[in-house]
Design a protein that fits this description.
CATH superfamily of the largest domain: Methylesterase CheB, C-terminal domain
Number of domains: 2
Number of helices: 14
Order of helices and strands: EHEHEHEHEHHHHEHEHEEEEHEHEHEH
Shape: elongated
Strand content: 15-25%
Radius of gyration: 21 Å
Largest sheet: 7 strands, parallel
CATH class of the largest domain: Alpha Beta
């Protein structure tokens, strides 16, 4: 098997040198080029194409996002974004994921060399998985105009009204809940699914592997383009129809009972399957609390997180779905779930909204 050819595009000389050295020492990998900006990258790529590009966002002459969009429109290539935790960089990183980047790594604004050395194994694993990915450019949707009344106060009033409704009329909601887990490629996949759902959809709880500061921005972006309401979860939030709660980065989320319905508990704790939030933590709580009234969906992502939790959900009577290989950017998590027998149904990304509607209809 030939070595994975990696191109580093970053204006930091430290990044290029240290990451390049780590890649060169990793069996099965090789640095093809290390350049300071996308203009130099495009020149180098005339003579040979990399398997994976590690790309900074903010650079001179051409920014990484512009380069990524050009790349994806001409020749989709696995791209791993490297950006800082700064708010502006986080926003641009989410735009990059929406434009087709398959993964991202957050780097500190200071102590970059030490960070790269300490996180070398994770970085190499990310590049290895990216090399197997099938990058896709997601069509940009027309935003859902929710109107100027959708302020924080209006949102709070709506939540309170629906919370009272679920308590006073539990028969209508029948304790239904949908749990979704995703990782690499999940930002595009979640957007594709949630955009298709109506306000009548049962409450949704989501774990997307993502660091803190990113999940809030991600939820805001989804909220702008979806009919349902989407936001980052807070501890003790009630799970309501027509709403998706996304676990905050750096914390786990569990489902628990609340009167006639459910609420979420946002808690700290050790990483599970090397992740926090962990899909397994969410799925196992849903299996215990909601049983046969739940639906579990595992989508694109590297690793094994969520597979065993989905199996517990199926054993407790829940409907379970795994995204199929063809529509996954990375087939790791769904493959593990399928191999364990956790998935009752294997569905393409475009079919998952229909599976959700069938789940709802089967209970009515």
């Amino acid at each position: 098997m030939s070595a994975i050819q990696v191109m580093i595009v970053d204006d930091s000389a430290v990044m290029r040198q240290v990451l390049g050295d780590i890649i060169q020492r990793t069996p099965g990998m090789q640095v093809m080029h290390a350049v300071s900006d996308p203009v130099a990258a495009m020149e180098k790529m005339k003579s040979g194409w990399p398997d994976v590009i590690v790309l900074d966002i903010e650079m001179p002459r051409m920014d990484g996002l512009t380069f990524l969009k050009k790349l994806m429109s001409e020749r989709p290539t696995p791209v791993v974004i490297c950006s800082s935790h700064a708010a502006r960089s986080a926003d641009l990183t989410l735009q990059a994921l929406g434009a087709g980047a398959v993964a991202f790594v957050t780097k500190p604004q200071h102590g970059l060399k030490a960070f790269l050395v300490d996180s070398a194994a994770d970085m190499m694993r990310t590049i290895q998985h990216a090399a197997k990915a099938r990058p896709q450019t997601a069509p940009r949707p027309h935003p859902v105009l929710k109107g100027p009344s959708m302020t924080a106060m209006a949102d709070a009033a709506d939540v309170a009204q629906r919370s009272n409704e679920i308590t006073s009329n539990p028969a209508r909601h029948s304790g239904r809940v949908i749990a979704i887990g995703a990782s690499t490629g999940g930002t595009q996949a979640l957007e594709a699914v949630l955009r298709c759902l109506s306000k009548e959809t049962p409450g949704i709880v989501v774990v997307q592997h993502m660091p803190e500061k990113f999940t809030s921005l991600f939820a805001q972006r989804l909220n702008d383009i979806c009919e349902i309401d989407v936001r980052e979860a807070r501890n003790n939030d009630i799970v309501l129809p027509g709403q998706a709660l996304i676990s905050p980065g750096g914390q786990h989320m569990r489902l628990s009972r609340a009167n006639a319905g459910y609420k979420v508990e946002v808690v700290d704790g050790p990483a599970v399957n090397r992740h926090k939030p962990s899909v397994d933590v969410l799925f196992r709580s849903v299996a215990q609390v909601a049983g046969a009234k739940a639906m579990g969906i595992i989508m694109t992502g590297m690793g094994t997180d969520g597979a065993r939790g989905l199996l517990e959900m199926r054993h407790n009577g829940a409907r379970t779905v795994a995204q199929d290989e063809q529509s996954c950017i990375v087939f790791g998590m769904p493959r593990e779930a399928i191999d364990l027998g956790a998935a009752e149904t294997i569905a393409s990304l475009s079919s998952i909204p229909g599976e959700i509607r069938r789940f709802v209809s089967s209970i009515n």
